[in-house]
Amino acid sequence: MNYHQLTQTDRENLRSFISDPERFITEPTTHWDHDQFRTVTALPDLVIQPVNNDEVSKVVKYASDNHIPLVPRGNSTGLMGANLSVDGGISLDMVKMNKVLEYDPDSLTMTVQAGIRLKDIEEYLSDKPFTYMPAPAMHWATIGGNVSTNAGGLKAIKYGVTREHIRELKVVLTDGKLYKFGSKAVKSSSGYSLKDLLIGAEGTLGVITEVTLRLYPNPRKTINAIIPFPTLNDAIKSVPAILASGVVPTTVEFMGRKVIDLWEKYANDQFPIKDGDGFIILGLDSFTEEEWKAELEQALSVVKEFKAKEALVLGADSDEAKKIWKCREELLLAIQKSTPKMDEIDICVPINHIPEVLDRIEELEKELKIRIPNFGHAGDGNLHIYLCSDEMTDEQYAETSNKVISELYKTAKALDGNMSGEHGIGYARANYYEEFYGHDYTEMLRKIKTLFDPNDVINPGKIFEMK
Ligand SMILES: Cc1cc2nc3c(=O)[nH]c(=O)nc-3n(C[C@H](O)[C@H](O)[C@H](O)COP(=O)(O)OP(=O)(O)OC[C@H]3O[C@@H](n4cnc5c(N)ncnc54)[C@H](O)[C@@H]3O)c2cc1C
């Protein structure tokens, strides 16, 4: 696609929409050229940091009318190059739209601007009886980024992912109008849900400016059980049995000794359990003590059949529990630190098929001589699989990682899984999309994209190729 190159006149026109020159950055630095993985880098021609809906509307309309690419950007903690200005143009950096607009405990909602970070929402709610439940591990991400990737979190089994916690969005589309998608009402049987279409759209359909979140009362009791097993496979195999037994955990995470060793080195710390090679972290919350005790007893009796060793049971506020969660949340960074270059596969398969994926990973490690550490959400089938470059040259790494990526996508497709469970497709994987989901399905998405964005200016080149 040939886009219009920004001229001095465009810059002056766009500048007139923004009240403060400090938020109009004409010489972007490398701060704006990468996301967390740096697998793709690209510098925008201009960065604009809006603070209100009106500024967003004017900039988006101008970009669309003048055929200038515009890429919404959260806090750039994404992993698939989704927020990069690969065609140049404007990076619309949302981090200064970071206010809480309304706290409404009576409707169990709060409304925020899209650039607020999860960490700030958590701080805002810390002295209130409510919480925003999804719990993605990256607290620096913005809520707009989370909505746009439909971020998953550690509590997906019991409470669902970001989608289940969004009541309403305010969105600027390419005509420059501000639309309200959804409402504070709990239910809707009122036609197509455009709110749900925008969730997970990775900024390709419009710019989200405000988000109304569903709040939950803080659970009264929260505990974690860390269950060691002789192997990771034993650990994973126990999960469908735990879930089928009637226990509804908030969390079931898996990790193996290999990634824990990397974390110990990264954090210069010790994981509290020495015994076992595979671990399940089980989280339970409840209204009463009796409830979680009964669920825990049930889960621990089920896992015996899978050679489970003695579990460590911890109150959520204990120092050991905090350390275990810190370890889980830092695993990605620990693996990243262990290798010069890293890429990720984030496939999601039906929970009973995780062992097949782990077997295929082991085969590929041997066959292609590449280290592929992994961990993930055993309770929802979403694996985080990392391709480490180690001693390889850039060419060897590019060739080997491409083979691993296509092989594991074939595995996920054969198991009726998805390409990404929570990190998105972005730019890095857009070229695999049509092969995974098929021509007719991708054509349907292209028609939707064209309806929302006829000039293909909003985050072009992401999720799937337009052709
Ligand atoms: C250590 C670590 C742990 C992580 N853990 C998790 C996890 O547990 N679960 C998970 O899901 N992800 C996780 N991630 C990935 C990342 O945090 C998420 O993808 C997050 O949603 C990105 O948010 P962001 O604000 O950084 O957005 P960015 O990375 O800046 O952008 C992501 C996408 O959102 C779009 N976007 C951003 N804001 C808007 C807006 N206002 N309107 C329209 N589009 C917008 C961008 O165009 C882009 O397509 C982790 C990342 C790291 C580094």
How is this fold's topology laid out?
Layout: H1 8-15, E1 24-25, E2 46-48, H2 53-65, E3 70-73, E4 90-93, E5 100-104, E6 109-113, H3 118-125, E7 130-131, H4 143-149, H5 156-159, E8 166-172, E9 178-182, H6 194-198, E10 207-214, E11 216-217, E12 221-229, H7 232-244, E13 251-256, H8 257-267, E14 278-286, H9 289-304, E15 312-315, H10 319-337, E16 342-345, H11 354-368, E17 374-377, E18 382-388, H12 394-414, H13 433-437, H14 439-452
Parallel strand pairs: 2-4, 3-4
Antiparallel strand pairs: 1-2, 5-6, 6-10, 7-11, 8-9, 8-10, 12-14, 12-15, 13-14, 13-17, 16-18, 17-18
Bound molecules: flavin-adenine dinucleotide.
The site of flavin-adenine dinucleotide has 37 residues, from strand 3, helix 4, strand 10 and helix 10.
Describe the structure.
The protein is of the alpha+beta class and 467 residues long. The chain has four domains: 8-95, 2-Layer Sandwich (Uridine Diphospho-n-acetylenolpyruvylglucosamine Reductase, domain 2), CATH 3.30.43; 100-217, 2-Layer Sandwich (Uridine Diphospho-n-acetylenolpyruvylglucosamine Reductase, domain 3), CATH 3.30.465.10; 221-336, Alpha-Beta Plaits, CATH 3.30.70; 339-414, 2-Layer Sandwich (Alpha-Beta Plaits). It has helices spanning 8-15, 53-65, 118-125, 143-149, 156-159, 194-198, 232-244, 257-267, 289-304, 319-337, 354-368, 394-414, 433-437, 439-452; strands at 24-25, 46-48, 70-73, 90-93, 100-104, 109-113, 130-131, 166-172, 178-182, 207-214, 216-217, 221-229, 251-256, 278-286, 312-315, 342-345, 374-377, 382-388. The protein has a seven-stranded antiparallel β-sheet, with helices on both faces. A five-stranded antiparallel β-sheet has the order 5-6-10-8-9. α11 (354-368) runs antiparallel to α12 (394-414). It is globular. The termini are close together. The structure holds flavin-adenine dinucleotide (FAD).
